[in-house]
Design brief:
Strand order of the largest sheet: 3-2-4-5-6
Shape: globular
Largest sheet: 5 strands, parallel
Helix content: 25-40%
């Protein structure tokens, strides 16, 4: 029926089974699969404790940064928080503006416009801030590769503190302080903090230095949860702890904008989880920066005005609907370009003047899901082309861009996602080099997505007690996946497509004794090939509909 590989974890060892005997048998297997084979390790994980020091002053640059910010606050110097236009950048900006204001600082935000300025620091913006008498700029979620811009700031006498979580280049920018756990020599053990996580560590450093009773760091943990989950930072270690605490904060939020956004999205904040951030709140907050200016999302998170919050939430809701339609259109057009040019290539490239740069990354991600190849989609302008890249685990896209740096104006990102700007005269050479790099790395590999499961269960194993046990794994997401199981030979009692264009499957499945409702997102195309009996891979979850809660299966794949 499809070409995905299923990988089912081996049974836990007798020794681990004995050491984990205090836990539910299925939970024991799940814990073992995640690397926890002793009672102490399992309890630390389930309670979301970080098993290392989280002292913010272990981060290189923290002491210098805190000292300079304190000097600016006490000297009534103007401070600017320079962020990014995605959820991580917007939440980071909001967090530091809130914290510094509570400490009495004179602080403003600066979030560049994706379409006019592009990603990261730019010298024109720095000049504008200088003309507004700003003496200190703190970047969040950007800046680690802005060497020329940092040099420009230094030449103009502007102090610059860079906080970022992206991979540094060979040479660091010349800034007053750089806070990034990925920089060489940094001893902080959590290298996978999101941009908002690093902003929070800076807030912790300021709270320690000021010893201020005005600072309630718990009040900004909702922002940390939003940015960390939306940016796909792994939900392990300290990230998991911060997100769990942030979700607890969100369930009783005092943030008017978050309350209003949940209302227009018809989301019950009292039961919010990481999945809701990833699929409901995050996309709406991102929509502002993808289509226009991200300032609407920033203002929503910061405002205490009920009327303004409601208007901004409605604006983001409408922009998100427009974003969904644009994503589908660009995906279809990009797919047509790819199929017409090099359908068998190990890396796919599609650029067009009509593609909107705020949407191209989403279209690329959808195409990676379909073809399981690295995909680059971009908008072509008169002199340059701006692209977003999405990749697969077998191909580190930012490392590939490092090998093309002589052809690029600017670039940056992670293993699985990146962005760049290239002059149009270098575009074809860049395409050729990236395609060759991908072919060299991928041509001998079996390129199929691998889906992992924690074990094989019968439907009679799926009880309310098991569901309760699995809730201890929360928050789940990237790096800390939901527990996933396989059941074989189940009977398809009913099946129909639901959602826009019949993209999803709604099923009733039975093993002749127990029956469950099931939802299979983005698997509607499988309906014509379904047989009477199937093997399924799924997560076991609680669903709520019309005020009624029930157990259901969330299908990941069908064979």
């Amino acid at each position: 029926m499809n070409s995905k590989r299923w990988l089912i974890s081996p049974l836990l060892t007798p020794q681990a089974d004995e050491r984990l005997s205090a836990f539910h048998p299925v939970l024991r297997q799940v814990l073992f699969n995640r690397g926890y084979s002793t009672d102490a390790e399992a309890r630390a994980y389930l309670s979301a404790k970080a098993n290392y020091s989280t002292d913010p002053f272990q981060l290189t640059g923290m002491e210098v940064a805190v000292r300079r910010i304190r000097s600016a606050i006490e000297g009534e110097e103007k401070i600017a928080i320079y962020g990014d236009y995605d959820v991580d950048g917007v939440t980071s900006t909001t967090l530091l503006v809130e914290i510094i204001r509570k400490l009495g600082g004179i602080v403003q935000e600066y979030i560049p416009n994706r379409f006019d300025e592009g990603y990261g620091l730019n010298s024109e913006a720095l000049d504008m801030l200088i003309s507004a008498d700003v003496g200190l700029v703190i970047t969040v979620d950007c800046g680690i590769r802005s060497n020329a811009e940092a040099e420009h700031a230094s030449e103009r006498g502007l102090d610059l503190i860079i906080t970022d979580h992206h991979q540094p280049g060979e040479m660091l920018p010349e800034a007053l302080a750089i806070i990034n756990p990925k920089q060489i020599g940094d001893t902080y053990l959590n290298k996978e903090l999101a941009g908002v996580g690093i902003a929070y560590k800076l807030a912790e450093g300021l709270a320690h230095d000021f010893s201020s009773s005005a600072l309630d760091l718990d009040a900004v943990l909702d922002l940390v949860a939003l940015g960390t989950v939306a940016d796909l930072a792994p939900l392990t270690g300290e990230n998991r702890l911060l997100v769990r605490r942030g979700l607890a904060n969100m369930r009783q939020t005092a943030r008017q904008g978050l309350f209003s956004l949940a209302a227009v999205a018809e989301l019950n904040l009292e039961k919010v989880n990481a999945t809701n951030i990833g699929f409901v709140l995050g996309p709406r907050l991102n929509a502002a920066g993808r289509l226009d200016s991200a300032l609407a999302a920033y203002e929503l998170l910061l405002t205490t005005d009920v009327k303004k919050a409601g208007e901004l939430a409605q604006q983001l809701e409408l922009q998100n609907r427009e974003r969904q339609a644009l994503t589908q259109r660009i995906q279809q057009q990009a797919e047509a370009i790819i199929l017409s040019e090099e359908p068998g290539s190990y890396l796919s490239f599609a650029v067009h003047p009509d593609f909107q740069s705020g949407i191209v990354g989403l279209a690329a991600a959808r195409l990676v899901d379909i073809y399981y190849r690295p995909v680059i989609v971009g908008q072509e302008f008169e002199a340059t082309t701006r692209c977003s890249c999405r990749s697969i685990p077998e191909f580190h896209i930012t490392n590939a861009l490092d090998q093309c740096s002589d052809l690029l104006l600017r670039y940056g990102g992670h293993a699985a996602a990146a962005g760049f700007t290239v002059r149009n005269e270098n575009l074809e050479a860049l395409k050729d080099r990236l395609k060759n790099l991908a072919a060299e790395e991928l041509k001998f590999q079996d390129l199929r997505p691998t889906l992992s499961a924690d074990g094989t269960l019968s439907f009679s194993d799926l009880t309310p007690n098991l569901l309760k046990q699995l809730e201890y794994l929360q928050p789940t997401g990237y790096g800390n996946p939901d527990a996933v199981f396989v059941s074989r030979g189940v009977q398809v009692k009913s099946a129909r497509t639901v959602g826009a264009d019949g993209r999803h499957l709604k099923l009733t499945l039975s093993d002749s004794r127990v029956a469950f409702d099931a939802i299979a997102f983005r698997l509607g195309h499988l309906l014509p090939s379904l047989s009477d009996r199937v093997d399924i891979m799924y997560s076991f979850e609680k669903n709520e509909y019309n005020g009624r809660e029930y157990m259901q299966l969330n299908i990941r794949d069908i064979q």
